[in-house]
Amino acid sequence: MKMRHIPALFIVMALLSGCLQLGTQVETPTPLAATEIVPTATPVQPELVSLTVCLGQEPNSLYPFGELNSAARSILAAVYDGPFDTISYEYAPVILTQIPSIENGDGQIVKTQVKVGDQVLDADGNIAAVAEGLRVRPAGCTSDDCAITYDGLAPLEMDQMIVTFRLRPDLTWSDGTPLTADDSIYSFEVQKGNNVNKFLVDRTQVYEAADPQTLQWFGMPGFIDQTYFTNFWTPAPKHIWSEFSPEQLAESDVASREPLGWGPFKVDEWRPGESITLSKNPYYFRATDGFPKLDVLKFRFTPDPDTALSDLIAGSCDILDPSINLENHVGLLQEMQTAEQAQVFYSTGMSIEWLGLGLVPASYDNGYDIQKDRQDLFADLYTRQGIAYCLDRQSIVDNTLFGLTTVPTTYVPIEHPVFDENIKGIPYDPQIGISLLEQAGWLDEDNDPSTPRRALNNVENVSYNAVLELNYYTTTSTQRRQVAGILEKSLEECGIGLNVKYLTANELYTGGPNGLLLGRQFDLAEYALGVDGIEAPCEWFTSSEMPSAENLWSGTNVTGFKNKDYDQACRDAQLALRDGQEYLNAIRQTEILFSENLPAIPLYYRLRIAAARPDVCQFQLDATANPLWNIEAIGVGDACQN
After folding, report:
1. Structural domains in the chain?
2. What is the pTM (predicted TM-score) of this model?
3. Which residues neighbour 93 within 8 Å (Cβ) at sequence distance 6 or greater?
C-alpha cells in the first residue's frame, strides 16, 4: 500500500517545481510527521505445569467396575474424584453433599409389611422367600435371641433400610455433559447385568432417582447393612456407554482405556508398555477454586525399584507410587531424604504380615488320625501362646523395617476407631514362652535349646516323644528371608526347631487342594492379608472362610480356625450399624476371642512407601486412602505457590 502512493508523491513534487520556475510564490508545505508502526505482540503462552507419577505396573484396565490392580486404582483417582474418600479410617463425601446417617435423616430403618412369597433376608442372613417355618427377625429385632419361626399366617413386619444420596448440583462429565442421578441408576443396571458386587445387588430391593440430584436405595427387608451409607453406585456416562451392552463394556476402549470421568483429569493417551497421559479437565467441579494445580499428569510404568529411584533423581519421575516395591530400599530412601534429594512417605493400614499356624490341616477334615496325620501340634493353647512369646517380632520391626511400623495386637490396626485398647499385646519373652511350652508338655530333655523339645508330658493330641520341629514356608523376597532368619533364631532359644522353605509366590499361593496355603498343608506359613476398605475384617477368621472342597478351596482362614463364639460375634457385627454400640461391642468381642485363641500371629503392619522429588507439594500418603486421593491439590515447582 505504501509503494502504490509513491508515484503520486513524485507528481506533486514536479508540479511544485514548475510553479516555482514561473515565479509564482507558493507556500512550502509542512512535512507530514512520520507514523510509527508498532508490531502486534504475540501473546506469551504460560508454560504447562506437568507432573510424572511412576507406577510399579501397567494398569490391567481402566474399566472402573472390573477387578483392578493398584496401578489402575491410582490412575482412576485422577479420573473419578470419589464418590467417597476413606481418610484415616473414616468416610468423607466427595460428589455427595453429605454422608447419609440415621442422625441426619438420610438413613432410615422403617417397618414394612411382608407376605408369603416376598424375598427377605432370613435370621441367618440368607435370601429366602417368606414361608411357613422360615426363621426371621421381625421389626425391631436386632439379634438372634428375638428371631421367630414364621407360622405362615400372622401379619409379619420386618425392618427395611432406606438411604437417600444427594449429589452435588455442579457435577459435569469431562466432555461437558451434566452428571445426574440417572448416571448412577445406569451404573447399577450395568453392574447388575455383569453380576458385579452381587452381594449388594441381590440385597437391593429398589434403587431409583427421586430427582436429577437425588437417589434412594431400598434394601431387602431384614437386611440391616452396617455400611448402608456407601450403597451408592459410582456414576457411569450413560450418554456414551449405553451404545454398548454390559458384556461389551469391560473390553471396549471407551470404558477400559479412555473412560470418561468427572474428576480433575481426563485420559488423553495410553501407550502400551510405556505410559498414560492425562490432561486437566476444564469442567472439573472444583475448577473455580483453582484445581487441579497441574495441566498435564503423566503415568509411567517403572516396575524396577532401582530404575525408579534413578529416574526420581534424574527428574523422569516426580512421584514414586506405592505400587513400586520400595521395601528393600528404605535405607537408601532415608539417605536421599537427608541429602534433600527426595521426600519419603510411609504409612501402615489394613494390611498385616501374618505367621499362620496350621491348626486344622485339610487332612483332618475326615477326622484326625494321630498315627497317620501330621501331629496336631497346635491343639494346646499353651503351645500357641508359647510360640508367640518366643517370636522376636520387635526385632523384625527395628532391624528389617527401620522401626517404621509396629507389632500388631489383634487383626485390627491400633489407629482404628474400633480397636480395643484393653487388649494387651504379647511381647518377646523367651522365659514366659518356655514356661508355657513346658506346661503344654514340651520338655527339653537334654537341656540344650539348640535341639528341639519333645512331647514328653501328655501334649494334647500329640504322640509321645514327638519333636517340636516345624516346617516354615514363605516366599523368596529379601524382606521375608530376613524375617525368617530372625524368627528362626528366636524360636531356637525356646527349643523350637524350624525347617525354613522358600517358595515362589505362585508355589505358595497355589489353589487347593494341592496348594500349601489354600490347601491347608503347612505347620507355619508367613503371608500377608489386607483389604481395600476400612471395615474391621473379622471374617478373615470365620469358619466360612476356611478353604475346603465345599467352597472350592477359597478363603482367608487358611489356618483352619473354628470357634462358634467368634463366628457369632463377627456375624453380629456384620448385621449391626457401624456407628452403633451393638457393632462396637460385637467387633471388640471378636478381637478378644482372637487374642485369646491365637488362630494366627500378627508379625507387623506392612508398610506402604512412596517418594517424591523435593519440589513436589501437597502429596499426602494416608493409611486408608488411595495414594493419589488429593491429586487435584498436588503441585510441583511454581504451582506450589498458588
Report:
1. 50-81+263-348+608-641 (3.40.190.10), 90-238 (3.90.76.10), 351-605 (3.10.105.10)
2. 0.88
3. 82, 83, 84, 99
